[in-house]
Amino acid sequence: MRFMMLMIPLGYETAPPDVQLDPERVRAMMKYNEDLKNAGVLITLDGLHPPSMGARVSFAGGKPLVTDGPFAEAKEVLGGYWMIDVASREEAIAWATRCPASENEIVEIRQVQEMGDFPEEVRQAAAGFAELTSGSGR
Questions:
Q1: How would you class 136 by CB atoms within 10 Å of its CB: exposed for 0-12, middle for 13-18, buried for 19 or more?
Q2: What pTM does this model have?
Q3: How far apart are CA 50 and CA 18, in angstroms?
Q4: pLDDT digits (tens, 9 = 90+) for 64-121
Q5: Alpha helix (H) ranges present in 98-135?
């Protein structure tokens, strides 16, 4: 089962573009990342720049509208993610509890939807999805 663990650093929604990382915290997180890899559960991971460097595209009225960050209405934003492959939700939670997060960080766990989770009609409508996602590199 694939799970995405989402890092939600409280306060990151107002972080400046040149936010500085604490090298000690980065070292601790790298150790955790290596543990995930060595256990054979890590698929991928990335950190994200703050929202002040991002953009949002909304579709109110059916037309795209681009808004540059930061976003005044944001309450919680993503700081990064891990994609892991484990046997159960409980195992994903166990990995999340080992994360060296600080008291102002939350790790949210979300199971990835698999085609087998959907009725046949939806699977037929999504024919070719696997080919879109396999081998997708730059």
A1: exposed
A2: 0.85
A3: 9
A4: 999 888 887 778 899 999 999 999 999 999 999 999 999 999 999 999 998 888 889 9
A5: 120-125, 129-133
